[in-house]
Specification:
heterodimer; A: 516 residues; mainly alpha; Vanadium-containing Chloroperoxidase, domain 2; 2 domains; elongated; B: 309 residues; mainly beta; Porin; globular
Chain lengths: 516, 309
């Protein structure tokens, strides 16, 4: 009898076990959850906005489209009709994935590649380090190391190309006013909600081509992957009934022309010289030592001979005419009362780190194998764009100005980092240990603070209702590095001011581009 | 028969990032009804090489990694055939190299039920079959996403283990067990991470695992001393590899193979009820974890809570 009772206990135990076994796993989100939507506005005059690198939205010229009553157009329409009538379930998935604002998807792809390539090369067995080499991308180590300076620049070129491409597309869309296929032929249904934006040239095709080509230039090993993504995206423009072939061809042409102009700037912006030789890096450190009496030294074992991109501070900014205009004043001398105050704060924080502080440090960490702080702010921008139902042109504008400001802030930050060559807390405070890894570059000013302040400024300008939130985030991002033990408070505070100053130049350009 | 009931609790702590109480439940021995065993086990595990994916490497910014653990445990005989076990390890981690700070705290609370399904004389020995269920859940708010320093995987675990032991009358025994470890998700402090693609969430899926044990052992001195050798393997059913020169994360496919040697002595006359144990274990193959060598010891004390009439 007793035996039986315990058998029952065991069976209940097993039953509970089975329930637990099948209830734990849920689908974790791998992308933004949004569907095609009605835009809050379509910016009919968007073709008059001032592009970033193009002289105007007429610089790239496309043919006038065939009339909707022409034989050639009718042929295209018939072809589209047959495509939309035979959409497979995989094609349906692609339609739902790309949506009518594919800017967001390409931004997500860019962030994912940033995370994938954000790995710092480890030492060789003999203690030396081999750096990624654009001329031999397969490596090892693979090219690129998508650290924050690399990633902010990648995102800036991607967004600027998307924006200039779409300003051009908008110009011709509203000049030629070719209606959407579904408006011409009632037998064609668009998979996406109609926003009454003319369909020639295809904005989707512009986005697919510029995004593919800029990202291939930035992540050469991903060529096949990116081509496959773009091929699917371009095909989805027909599966969804959005565009006839001539719409798409015109969009591809614009995309190809824009990418040439954008990549020409990228090739000559100075980035290829940013990672210097040891001799150059040492001379910069020695200059700081002579000037200020300190120099930063990498604390890893084996020691890295050169910090990360010492000459990123010399890369050509987007909006700031001369980066030294916003170079901050010198940080306090190690050992001075001002320094000791902030060093003591680090020791105190480390000694009794609260759960909240630990959480903030980790939430903003955005370290190796992540999309970096610039990526984090792109994610915020994406969420706001969805919330405020921006059309693709206005989305591209948001990303473009934000990423230009972030990159300028990064350049300014790196200018200060290597001009002042200021040691990290683990170098100045004996025996100091941290919860975050200390990056391979000088402390002053904090990259997180600078990038975040710049991003918050632009987002506050574009989404005024979110300004309070954005400013609070920027402050928290700066603070997080103190909790992590890798920055002094003066690195964070000054970085914050510096980021705001850098962003102002871009915001002034944005305010004058005709969109407001 | 009753002598076999001398028992307990081993904790050849695997040195896995997750302490596996199942270890204690891999022993075929049972407390008799109303008998309670209290134990404390101390474990010292170190590694200076780790597997990045399947590649064994060093990292001078970690140097030698040390993980020490003190684990109080209880085992109680609800009946002669059904035992309940509980444990709560306290763990501290540190490394000799690099600048990252180690952590210390309570890891996971584990409670287990162990049930003897079958026990019969067969040939020159006795065959017993047991089923074990273990439920484990984090006992503090430690951060799982701070590897290799983190105290554990930070997730609820449910283990089902089947075990068979054949013991000859001369004291030799062999034992084998196989377990499925169902793991949930762990909550981390960032809401984006890379796991062969982007994840926009604070939850990380911790891979389920299987665990195999094979043990050969012998009792000596009229069941006062037992000595055994064990092969163990832990295999995750999914998961990604540690990325090049990067930290591990809870989504990784953690695996190891390990051998261990274990001895336990039970005082029979003076100090009756007291037991001492000691062990050494070493991993010899693995994936995404430190190549641990562990040494440990413990004290057990067992007594009747209620004297049977």
């Amino acid at each position: 009898m007793i035996m039986k009772r315990y058998s029952i206990v065991l069976y209940i135990f097993l039953l509970v076990a089975c329930v637990i076994f099948y209830s734990c796993d849920s689908e974790l989100p791998i992308r933004a959850n949004y569907a095609a939507y009605t835009f809050s506005g379509i910016d009919e005059n968007g073709g008059n906005w001032k592009p970033i690198l193009l002289t105007s939205s007429n610089q790239i010229v496309i043919d006038e489209p065939a009339d909707v009553n022409s034989a050639s157009y009718k042929e295209e329409l018939e072809a589209l009709k047959s495509i939309t009538a035979n959409v497979s379930s995989a094609q349906r998935d692609a339609i739902n994935y790309w949506t009518n604002n594919p800017i967001l998807r390409w931004n997500e792809i860019a962030l994912e590649l940033a995370a994938k390539y954000n790995l710092i090369p480890g030492p060789n067995p003999d203690g030396t380090y081999t750096l990624p080499n654009a001329a031999n991308p397969a490596g090892p180590p693979p090219f690129p190391f998508a650290h924050p300076p690399y990633t902010c620049r990648m995102l800036a070129y991607l967004s600027v190309a998307q924006f200039d491409g779409l300003v051009t597309a908008w110009n011709y869309k509203f000049n030629y006013n070719r209606p959407a296929p579904s408006s011409v032929d009632s037998n064609i249904t668009s998979a996406y909600i109609s926003n009454n934006i003319p369909s020639y040239p295809s904005d989707g095709a512009v986005i697919a081509v510029v995004s593919r080509d800029i990202l291939i230039a930035m992540f050469p090993l991903e060529k096949d992957y990116l081509e496959a993504r773009a091929t699917e995206h371009l095909a989805s423009l027909q599966w969804s009934g959005t565009n006839v072939t001539s719409d798409i061809e015109a969009g591809k042409f614009i995309g190809t022309e824009v990418k040439k102009i954008v990549l020409a700037r990228a090739a000559t912006d100075g980035m290829k010289n940013a990672q210097t030789s040891k001799a150059k890096s040492d001379s910069m450190a020695n200059a700081a030592y002579e000037r200020f009496g300190w120099r930063w030294e990498n604390q890893e074992t084996p020691q890295r001979p050169v910090g990360l991109t010492p000459l990123f501070g010399k890369v050509k900014p987007w909006s700031v005419p001369d980066i030294t205009l916003i170079r901050p004043v010198a940080p306090p001398t190690p050992g001075s009362p001002e320094f000791e105050k902030d060093a003591q704060e680090l020791k105190d924080v480390a000694k009794k780190l609260t759960n909240e502080q630990r959480k903030i440090a980790n939430w903003w960490s955005d370290g190796l194998s992540t999309y970096t702080p610039p990526g984090h702010w792109n994610r915020f921008a994406k969420e706001f764009i969805i919330k405020y139902k921006f059309n693709p042109l206005r989305s591209a504008r948001t990303f473009a100005y934000m990423n230009m400001a972030i990159m300028d802030a990064g350049i300014s930050c790196w200018d200060a980092k290597y001009y002042y060559n200021y040691p990290r807390p683990i170098q100045t405070i004996p025996g100091f240990k941290t919860i975050l890894g200390t990056p391979n570059f000088p402390a002053y000013t904090s990259g997180h603070s600078t990038f975040s302040a710049a991003a918050a400024e632009v987002l506050s300008y574009i989404f005024p209702a979110e300004a309070t939130q954005c400013q609070a985030w920027a402050k928290e991002a700066a603070e997080s590095r103190i909790y992590g033990g890798i920055h002094y408070r003066f690195d964070a505070d000054v970085g914050n001011t510096q980021g705001k100053a850098a962003a102002q130049y871009t915001i002034n350009i944005a305010k004058a581009d005709g969109a407001d | 028969m009753r002598k076999i009931i001398l028992i307990i609790i081993i904790c050849v702590v695997s040195g896995a990032t997750k302490t596996v109480l199942a270890q204690t439940t891999t022993d075929a021995l049972l407390m008799s009804k109303h008998e309670l065993c209290i134990a404390v086990v101390y474990d010292h595990g170190t590694w200076d090489h780790y597997w990045e994916g399947a590649n064994l490497r060093v990292n001078d910014n970690i140097g030698t990694f040390t993980r020490t653990m003190a684990m109080p445990m209880l085992a109680y005989g609800i009946t002669d055939k059904l035992n309940v076990l509980a444990s709560l390890p306290y763990i501290a981690t540190k490394s000799s190299g690099g600048q990252l700070v180690g952590v210390a705290g309570f890891q996971d609370f584990n409670v287990a039920l162990k049930y003897e399904i079958f026990n019969r004389e067969i040939g020159k020995g006795k065959l017993s079959l047991q089923g074990v269920g273990v439920f484990g859940t984090p006992a503090s708010n430690y951060l799982s996403d701070y590897m290799p320093y983190s105290l554990g995987l930070g997730t609820t675990e449910f283990t089902l283990r089947g075990m068979a032991e054949y013991k000859l009358d001369n004291g030799f025994y062999i034992r084998s067990s196989y377990a499925y470890i169902k793991r949930g998700e762990t909550e981390v402090e960032r809401d984006y991470y890379y796991n062969n693609g982007s994840y926009y969430t604070t939850l990380m899926d911790v891979p389920d695992a299987t665990n195999f044990y094979g043990t050969i052992g012998k009792w000596f001195f009229n069941y006062a001393l037992r000595v055994e050798a064990t092969y163990q393997s832990m295999n995750c059913l999914s998961g990604d590899d540690i990325r090049a020169y990067n930290s591990p994360q809870p989504t990784n496919k953690f695996e190891y193979e390990q051998v261990s040697f274990f001895a336990q002595y039970f005082f029979k006359t003076q100090l009756k009820g007291l037991g001492l144990l000691g062990y050494y274990s070493k991993m010899f193959d693995g994936r995404n974890m430190g190549e641990f060598a562990n040494i440990g010891g413990g004290v057990t004390y067992q007594f009747k809570v209620i004297n049977a009439q």
